[in-house]
Design goal:
Blueprint (H helix, E strand, L loop, with lengths): L1 E9 L6 E5 L8 H19 L1 E10 L7 H5 L3
Antiparallel strand pairs: 1-2, 1-3
């Protein structure tokens, strides 16, 4: 299982950066995670006018952030 994370920085204040953690995953494959990370990058650029700098897919340990565990947060 993989979790998508994107690092983006403000265009106005380039030293102000945030990590955007995907709320839809985790994903079974690294390929699915990559596709989601790229989609998040596009959304951050288009909707927030921030510049995506980096993305990554973190491999999760068994039991971490599974869909069942995420449902407990809602």
């Amino acid at each position: 299982m993989f979790k998508a994370i994107v690092l983006a920085c403000s265009i106005v204040v380039p030293t102000e950066c945030l990590e955007f953690h995907d709320a839809r995953g985790p994903y079974e494959t690294e390929r699915e995670c990559k596709a989601r990370a790229l989609a998040i990058s596009r959304d951050v650029a288009e909707r927030l006018n921030w510049m995506p700098k980096l993305w990554r897919c973190d491999k999760l340990k068994p039991g971490m952030l599974t869909k069942w565990n995420q449902s407990l947060l809602h």
